[in-house]
Amino acid sequence: MYEQREEFELVDGVKQGEAIYFFRCGTTETYTYVDGVKNGLSVLKVPNGDRAEYTYVNGRAEGPGFMQYANGNREEYVFKNNLKHGPAIFFYANGNREECTYVDDYLHGPATFYFANGDIEYYAYFKNTKDGKSKLVKANGEIVESTFLHGHKVK
User: Most CB atoms closer than 10 Å: which of 20, 43, 92, 107?
Assistant: First the structure.
């Protein structure tokens, strides 16, 4: 097991410059301190090859960021006040794509899934799970309607 720790420079008793945080699981996060506050680019590296980049502004993650997964999938999102909040797009290695929205770090609200084969599915998230009516429009024009409750297809 790894030790959880942060390595940084102290200048006149204040964190300054490049820093790295080591998580117990082996993940590392590099970032920069300016006058004791995280500011600028942050890079998160997971032992399995996943990698994220985002920006700190006055100690909080703000603005666009992404996670590149080792399996070829990619997620692009926006941070607001240290939480994912706003539009997000998932790009899958198989050519599929999902457009959705984060609200306070949860997938929440309308979403659209574009299948590589031309099918398109419209649905909604409620706190990270599919919830409510779903409409799948197949490339051949066939329409399939379903209902989800707490992430489970019920109809």
Answer: 107
